[in-house]
Amino acid sequence: MITVKEVRALALSFPEVREEPHFDRASFRVRGRIFATIAPDEKSGMLKLAHEALLAAEPGTFFSFGGFSRNGATGVRFARVKKQLFRELLGEAWRGVAPKGLVASTPKEVDRDPKARPSRRSKG
Q1: Domains of the chain, with CATH numbers?
Q2: What is the model's pTM?
């Protein structure tokens, strides 16, 4: 299980990440590109990665985003996901949308330690 507070702290721990609204969701972006969201009910979210194997292996934890899944959107239930797995998948989602130079200059350990980088939250 992972809490919304932990999800937010982890997402914001990556370099150059900002939290911004995306329709009725909170979204986490690196240079304008979304890599994760939190649903309005704060019970689930989306990670920008395609993991058909996760959907098949853990259907109670991960779910399809319908047509958006074709573009790499995987739903996750926060109450069901293991914290370490979520951290790893969030790191993968961030690396999938961040510019290559930024990824190359960022230690992989950042996705394991939410205190590894300062965070910024957008105002507005």
Answers
A1: 4-102 (3.90.1150.30)
A2: 0.84
